[in-house]
Amino acid sequence: MMKYRYKIKPLAQRKIRSFYYNVAKKYKHTYSKWLMYKNIDDAVDAMFQIERTLLRREPTISQWEGYHMANTDTWYFAYTIEGDTITIVDACHAQNMHEEFPEVRKR
To answer: Phi and psi for 99 in degrees, rounded to 5?
Structure first.
């Protein structure tokens, strides 16, 4: 098995952190900070399984066209491979995994 080096772009990290921060704000009486940080760590740790246990897939949303995609039960990741370096460029929680329609958001 090839050894990879991993680079995680700030956008991917930001999407994970903001998702769990928003969960913590919404469920502040039942979702602890400890659990929030654990969920963030688990999602970031999962990125290091890309091309190991998380297999390469074709992207299912058009924004990720040209990238590879991998997923856990909870997170989807868009990434590139150059030589021995995997660069994770984006992340999306499974419940948000859908096409964005800019004309709908403009209303």
So the answer is: -70, 140
Question: The pTM is what?
Answer: 0.87
CA dihedral for 60, 61, 65, 70, sign (positive or negative): negative
Average pLDDT over residues 71-98: 95
CA separation for the pair 58, 81 (Å, rounded):
14
Question: Which tokens in the block code for residue 73?
Answer: 């039960």
Q: Between the CA of residue 106 and those of 75, 86, 92, 96, what are the distances in Å?
A: 27, 35, 22, 19
